[in-house]
Specification:
Rna Polymerase Sigma Factor, Chain: A, 9 helices, 67% helix
């Protein structure tokens, strides 16, 4: 995808070019909105509002990472809706291994590609993870979703969140710790590696 060309074509009046950008980024935009909002319908609304806003503000884009710029609009759309509803968020995640060390990047938080027989258990695990994410304060929730759920690097996440790089790292560490503590209530749903740790400790 020639992103720069599509942006320029959009600025020149091509709605088709902008639709190409939407198709390319709609999945990650929705996934982030869903993780932040915790509700499919609300995530769809926030994603739609974000793309409308991005289209209206495209002339303000000054180069750099368009992805990060767009995701910042998505996160802002989510937070605007959360504040409108006067909701209170929570915190983030990271499990420990047998030797007490933590996984630096817990990839298992991401939605897995499951075989049919695993679907039910994985659906329960994802629901538990989402419950814990929903309890995070919004500033921690966003960083966790950007880095651990969507796999963005720290610099892109910092731009998307409008937050200094050092703050991203510190918030992520705190968020992972809080998610780890939250998930202990769903011990039986955790991957085998983490269940074995708790069984041996029992």
């Amino acid at each position: 995808m020639e992103e720069t060309a599509l942006i320029q074509e959009t600025l020149d009046g091509s709605l088709g070019a902008f639709n190409s950008l939407v198709l390319h980024y709609q999945d990650i935009a929705y996934n982030i909105a869903y993780r932040i909002m915790g509700e499919p319908g609300a995530a769809e609304d926030a994603t739609q509002e974000a793309f409308i806003s991005a289209y209206q503000k495209l002339a303000q884009f000054r180069g750099g990472s368009f992805k990060a710029w767009l995701l910042r609009i998505v996160s802002n759309a989510c937070y605007d809706e959360l504040r409108r509803r006067q909701r209170k968020p929570v915190t983030a995640l990271e499990p420990e291994l047998n030797d007490g060390e933590s996984l630096e990047e817990p990839a298992w938080i991401r939605d897995p590609s499951a075989s049919p027989e695993e679907c039910f258990e994985q659906a329960e695990l994802q629901e538990a993870i989402q419950q814990c994410i929903n309890r995070l304060d919004e500033k921690f929730r966003l960083i966790l979703v950007l880095v651990d759920v969507e796999g963005l690097d720290y610099e892109t996440a910092a731009i998307a969140a409008g937050t200094p790089l050092g703050t991203v790292k510190s918030r992520l560490a705190r968020a992972r710790e809080r998610i780890q503590n939250c998930l202990q209530r769903f011990w039986e749903l955790l991957p085998e590696l983490f269940r074995l740790k708790d069984e041996e400790a029992a």
